Amino acid sequence: MSEQLSPAVAEEAARRMVGFVNHLRLNGFVVGLPEAEAAIRLVASRDIADVEGTRLGLRCLLAKHKEEWEGFDDLFEAFWHGRGRVRQRLETARSARTQRSVRPILWTRHLQGEGDTGELTGRMEEGGGEGDAEAGEGRLIASTQGSRLTKDLRHLADRDEIAAAERTALRLGLAMRYRLSRRYRLHQVASKIDLRRTLRRSLAKGGEPIDLAWRARPEEPVRIVVLLDVSGSMELYSRFFLQFVKGLVTTWIRADAYLFHTRLLRITDALRERDPLKAMGRLSLLAAGFGGGTKIGECLATFNRHHAKRALNGRSVVLILSDGYDTGTAEHLAGELRRLKKRAGRLVWLNPLLGWRDYQPVTRAMAAALPLLDHFATAHSLESLAALEPQLARL
Amino acid sequence: MESIRSLIERLAAVGYVADPPLAAAIRLARDLQRPLLLEGEAGVGKTEVAKALAALESARLIRLQCYEGLDANAALYEWNYQRQLLAIKAHEHDSAAAEEIEAQIFSERYLLKRPLLEAITQDEPPVLLIDEIDRADEAFEAYLLEVLSDFQVTVPELGTIAARSRPVTVLTSNATRELSDALRRRCLYAYVDFPDEARELAILRRRMPDLGEALAAQVVRFIQSLRREELEKVPGIAETLDWAAALVGLDVADLGRADPVALQASLVCLLKTEGDQKAVSLEVTSRLAGRAA
Fold this sequence. Notes:
The complex is a heterodimer.
Chain A: H1 7-26, H2 33-44, H3 51-62, H4 66-81, H5 84-111, H6 114-127, H7 130-142, H8 146-150, H9 159-181, E1 192-193, H10 195-203, E2 214-215, E3 223-229, H11 235-251, E4 255-260, E5 264-266, H12 268-272, H13 276-286, H14 296-311, E6 316-321, H15 330-343, E7 346-351, H16 364-369, E8 375-378, H17 382-386, H18 389-393
Parallel strand pairs in A: 3-4, 3-6, 6-7, 7-8
Antiparallel strand pairs in A: 1-2, 4-5
Chain B: H1 4-13, H2 20-32, E1 36-39, H3 46-57, E2 61-65, H4 72-75, E3 77-79, H5 81-90, H6 98-105, E4 111-113, H7 115-120, E5 127-131, H8 138-150, E6 152-155, E7 159-162, E8 168-173, H9 181-186, E9 188-191, H10 197-207, H11 213-228, H12 237-249, H13 260-266, H14 274-279, H15 282-292
Parallel strand pairs in B: 1-8, 1-9, 2-5, 5-8
Antiparallel strand pairs in B: 3-4, 6-7
Helix pairs in contact in B: 1-2, 10-11, 10-12, 11-15
């Protein structure tokens, strides 16, 4: 045990620790008050000259993820030694530049309606209970929006119409969740007796276990993983799909969303962002480096290698929203799909082109993929998106 | 407070070779009496940390292996229903009041302690290992929170049982599922990576002292470069040890001069999927062995 610091020094150390914790928070760490307090105590109880020990200790205490664990050292250096400061400024300058150059090309198109939808999400959440959602869903399927539901999304031109369609797509995503989770059911007679409850009930009857209590595992909602193609050829559809995916992700606890183009990116966290401006900022940062055609096979390979283990289990549904125009080889795509199929419960491919009259899935990529899919459907209109739900439920 | 270096030495004495970040995490977990969450690929020696800690303190190791569907009854406590039923039957003809019987059958005598309750009711602080927490479902994490933050267990019929001594708690996770932030907040965190060459060699030397020095170095170099190949399942330290033992069994003293076919056959210790076995062909093996030798 090192000797205690003098009060003045301790206070100064505490002040700087608070600064450091704030610095971490700014960089995306979630540090609660108790951790901050523990960090201050840690520094106070320790030989301040032992920088290495302090760094290792603070890292265990404050980092909670692999990414944070790996990024901690740089942040530590930057704060205590001022070494990262120049680099940090460079970084922000660079990201600001990419933001400027990338956002207009790709994301403004996908995200124009973001403002109203954010508002919508807020309202839906305020509404809260399941009754509300049910009512909303009923209205949604029923009526006035019929024509919008069946119209090919390509043909929507009017600004208001587009915004309304986006909202519908979002609500569709929201509604699906409630439909599915109603699959929870109590089992009257199951295979296992709940001894604990049975015994409790028997006390009232003088110890005779007359009323038997049974137990069964409730069915859990499925896990959904969405892979959304945002390449140039999908441009007319992807903004609606993005809203649809957002609807799924914001309400479904176990949804995970990725988008791909020539690279694959995880967007779940960005979509969950409440603040539409922030969400847009994050998405545009994520979109940096995009361009050109689609490499479906390669993106699936990335997914298989880095995300599949965590994101998938035997009860997952993988939704691929893409037109199947691939610049890679068909064999590569088929091979990666086969690997994906091993991990996932169901593989669903939605192709907006399928809704076109006379379209045949003859592109080599699509032809190679077809035999591996559990379900291949169109997604050219909102109605076809809604028709997806039984597919998800049947698992 | 013990220095990191002396802790590393003491861990080495019980057969665990730790690097400074891990040793710092262990030291902090013991100082602050907080649970330590170890995350990392399968086979990097996360579970061994708990075993080494138990050996270090000569404490009891209590292990809770998590699996999907693990519930409070299997992890915390369970009433001994058979005994309870017998007791009720036995008292059937007594004139004892219902409350009396109830108080009796819901007493500690009829309580079966499962690992978590067991761990907090020890007189000497044990080492509690909660292994592969990512395999348990999310609902189970919620049960753990009370135990991990306050070291107490609430049994509705008995009340709250507080810890007699605080166990040194180690949680491990292979990151097959994202753990909740609430759980992460209650733990110290350390990411355990595959060991570098020097550390892996030290582990091999400590675990298999009779292995030739030259061969040990070759084995480690081979494994290190094998990990850089694109594999579905990267071999961990346990695999290294298995393979070294297999090589000794095959009378291999030098990887460079070993029979390539026998060497290829011995790779069953390292490659655990069909895809990996195909990817690492005879040529790849010879190339890696040649480079390692």
